Amino acid sequence: MEQKKIGLFLKELRKKKKLTQEQLAEHFNVSNRTVSRWETGTNMPDLGLLMEIADFYNVDIREILDGERKSENMNDNVKETLTKAVEYTNTEKEIKKKKLNRYFLTGGLCILAVVLDRQFDFLSYIFVKNASEFVRGALCGLGLVFEFVGFYNNNHEVSLKQRKMSLIKQGKS
Question: Residue 107 is part of which domain span?
Fold first, then answer.
């Protein structure tokens, strides 16, 4: 898959529809810069957006990925498989998003409990005075741990994607 060739093909398709990069960006709800990066081959749209682009230009995804027109139409089974792959990817993203939200929410609640206890001293009613200090420290520590775990998981996925891309690029060289 040659990104520059794909970019030139996307640019050609856009020009055939007599659209500017700004108009195309507005249609797909992305920035002008993103469209420019697609057309220069610097970046590629994700799979879900790629399917939308193919439908918009009335071309097969294979044609976009090959960077040229094909005379045959895309097999319905291939299109169905790609649709399922996009749905799977979107489901995985939603699961990850919910998981991260739980980490951040739990951490935030722990820290909030400590802040509220400093103001209203409600833990001393639940625990013995010495125990409330321990619980306050434990809640603060747990809150920070959950926040760090959330940030780590969020950034870890990005670094895995970067490693995969570098391995793919090394394989082409």
Answer: 76-172
Residue listed under structure tokens 């722990």: 110
154 & 131 share domain:
yes
The one-digit pLDDT tens for each residue of the chain (173 residues) are 688 899 999 999 999 999 999 999 999 999 989 999 999 988 888 888 888 999 999 998 888 888 887 755 556 667 777 777 777 777 877 888 888 888 889 999 999 988 988 888 888 778 776 777 888 889 899 999 988 888 887 766 555 555 555 656 555 44
Q: Nearest-CA neighbor of 117 among 104, 101, 134?
A: 134
Q: DSSP letters along 13-69, please?
A: HHHHTT--HHHHHHHHT--HHHHHHHHHTS----HHHHHHHHHHHT--HHHHHHTS-
Assess if residue 71 is contained within a domain: no
Count of alpha carbons within 13 angstroms of residue 143, beta-carbon side:
14
End-to-end CA distance of the chain: give it in Å, rounded. Answer: 13
C-alpha span between 78 and 72 (Å, rounded) = 13
Which residues, including other chains, have CB under 8 Å from residue 36's CB and lie 6 or more apart?
Answer: 21
> Are residues 106 and 60 located together in one domain of the fold?
no
Question: How many angstroms separate the Cα of 48 from the Cα of each of 114, 134, 146?
Answer: 43, 49, 31
